[in-house]
């Protein structure tokens, strides 16, 4: 029986693929119905994308929240939603439509190499497909269906081109264009197709050889850029977030990844759950037999030259190797799920079809088709699973709709909830917003949650009940099925103020260190780190006299700087310790105005209680799991005060005042930030926060930029600290009482241009903290402004001396002093400043060395040229640093040699100055570093050579340099002058 007349069904051969394709359509339509209520997180996100595309409100080119998955499926789903109305079924139709095209592609792929029998077998295997394959070809889970279809297209089309070239030595440039276009679309939709694109390129290179390097390659590249244009445009605009996926490689040992791939993942594709041992063994035997049979056919076909079977099998072999290596070296290999191996299904089906086509030439048809029948038998149970899934999802949908009715009845529209509830936004037609600000990347929902006047909480999300307990707030609640909703939250009264710092005698940690200087200095760039491990860190605040307290606030500049659980105890005037709060889980809520917010960058851990008289307060880490550190940047204690007006009552007065004073930028807390922005229609900029910090371990608050159009709004209880910070930054702020707040602004009649240079203030949501790294440069800039406006201004020396005291590495300050004193006619002071400037910038012993990074050594000074063993001397190095060079990456090695090394002065470039230098480098880039060097005892008298070089810590080797100095050895140079030991 020839391939042209073979028919497993007994019908005319031309009807078989049509019937199988029709079966594939019916199976996918069944899947669409079964998964129409799929409330999986990813499915819900795709459904939202489709909804927005259908409504015309958005056209996302990437999966919401995941910048490495394109939205081709969502585009088709949006089309079907527009055609049939927005529903879960219509969304699934888009996925099924994309997945359907895999069937004709795989059929043509197998038939081209093994005849119709191979095509029928391949198509029959893919009608239902393995369990995960069936699921992801109807359920909209991102870009799996498009990854499978487009990846198969790229492999098949490249194989077709290679076959045509091998047969006729002729190939149209249009084919290269179409292949490039398909590859570009595949790359945009999912980087799971990378192996298919790579394999296609390698296959064409093997078959075309040098002929591929022609205008055809330009056509392929053009097609790829056109197809992947959404990827490149989006990433260029958003800072290349998609490239973060490269960080998934190298986390798994390659041998382990390959073992998991070939032993577990391929088996899991065909036999979800792995099944009984006997069935698992049978499937494993089938996989191994298919692999051996394919290699046998490949070797046999290779002896006859580049036949269609040989090229097809070669392409699949290259793809399998590429996919296995990429998969096994990524962290996906360690995830116990076969879904990331789904791109292997289509090539496996083609191999299976080729094997059946080969077998039917040697054995009866019923025996040749046995592998297909066996595997289809394993696929059938997935249909029953889908029916069970549909029933369970329909019940959950009914429960969610009932919750929606109750939310509507209670007037709730915005809910903080766990991330998996994002799919409920589609299920309830976006009448409500369920948002997890930490994991939800869809900005409109974040904005809606941030701007809402009231927010509810689902199921104690984020330890909300604990937050209410430790802050003294309250909320109503109701139940809907298994869920509890907290709503109508009421904050505690504002009857508190900061306890004066002189009421605190000391603050100690478990190591006995006195840490009040760190925790009370008002600085953002200092912190206390717990010196002990899990569950053992604590701080103890001891008061000068019995103090009346009603709360405290901890501030950390690190995203994960708080313990996961904490407790607090107080010591009463009679000397007894008693618990205040016990085993409190960390939550990221805080009160702002009449509502609470989720932390994001301006998170502070607060506790409030009824006023208590205490002599000490101890806050303890009682975490039940290890933390890297417990970090506290600042500690604030509150004492009772009279209650000011509620915040909502002062809004109108504040808006009028802002308008009268022409304020265009207002630093305020979250609730007021939204109210002012909305009421002014955006005319007043406020620090509204939508995006929580991700990836960075440190929080970076907004730097205050003062001017007459800028104001700061602080609660009366927090005003003393803000007032102190402004005075420390020499800013003449006006204070106005508005409702419960103090408004600080900068009146034009007291404003000077020099005040713009004050980047050493950071806004933390409720007040100000200092940033010392930039303050010295700001003082220098202020002095320069005054020198330009009035060279004789008496404030100039004060500013410059303060700058030099805060950061001695500014030679420019000495130059400005010289110009100031010269203008005033003070010749002696001017000359002294001039000498100091030259001493800070010009070494006594020039020794120019320019290193590859742009770093330059200008020379050095040495206190004296002769020294006795055991004595010390000061050696000063003069460096010029280029912009953006990190001194911490460069290690200076200085060797005192007499043949062998006698002693050394190795140190980090600008040791202890690296961070401040990077924040506020001098304009000239010149920095003088003084080092105290001790000459060891026992050094024999005689001359000593000084050898210097740079070790680049990033490159892991000594840095190359250009210099006329003599070399000691490779990349180490002899300084002129030297030292004599007497």
The biggest sheet, with number of strands, parallel, antiparallel or mixed sense and barrel status, is:
9 strands, mixed
User: What does the average pLDDT come to?
Assistant: 88
The percentage helix is 40-55%
- What is the CA-CA span between the terminal residues? 106 Å
In one word, what is the shape?
globular
Number of strands: 39
The low-confidence runs, each spanning 5 or more residues with pLDDT under 50, are: 1-11
The proportion of strand residues reads 15-25%
Structural class, from helix and strand content? alpha+beta
Number of helices: 31
Radius of gyration: 36 Å
How would you describe what is shown here?
The longest helix is centred in the middle third of the chain and has 29 residues. The N terminus is likely disordered. The protein is of the alpha+beta class and 982 residues long. The protein contains 31 helices and 39 strands. 42% of the residues lie in helices and 21% in strands. The radius of gyration is 36 Å and the shape is globular. Strand 30 and strand 31 form a beta hairpin. Strands 28, 30, 31, 32, 34, 35, 37, 38 and 39 form a 9-stranded mixed β-sheet that branches. Strands 8, 9, 11, 12, 13, 16 and 18 form a 7-stranded antiparallel β-sheet that branches. Helix 8 runs parallel beside helix 10, helix 8 runs antiparallel to helix 15 and helix 27 packs antiparallel against helix 28.
